[in-house]
Amino acid sequence: MDLLSILKQRADGLCELCGSSEELEVYQVEPVEKAVSECQILACKKCLSFMANPVKESENHWRCLSESMWSEYTSVQVVVWRVLEQLKPLDWAIELQSQMVFDDVTLDWASSKPGEAIDDEPFR
What we know:
The chain is mainly alpha-helical. Helix content is 40%, strand content 8%. The chain has helices spanning 3-10, 45-52, 65-68, 74-86, 91-98, 104-111; strands at residues 24-28, 40-44. It has a two-stranded antiparallel ribbon with strand order 1-2. Helix 4 (74-86) packs antiparallel against helix 5 and helix 4 crosses helix 6 (104-111). The longest helix is centred in the middle third of the chain and has 13 residues, at 74-86. The two termini are 20 Å apart.
């Protein structure tokens, strides 16, 4: 089974951030570059577009993170944390992010930037 099929099965064919069923793609949660589902999420084009450019107009779209932040999948939680970090001037985003609790490895992953070295031992 290919990675897209695995993620679609895991997410019931829905974006793991907003729940949309349209235009779904595999998103690599960097800087971990392992081609395994634990390092990827299934996201719709709208979420991917907003993640690339989190402008104020996307604020209402991201209210969905109040649900997806509780995902059982670490890769989804990491992406939620990163989006909330970008929306931090907004009170509701600060409140949601403050509710997220990570171990040190996951927090390092969430707060890292693409290209940064992190301990990717859990993904080997």
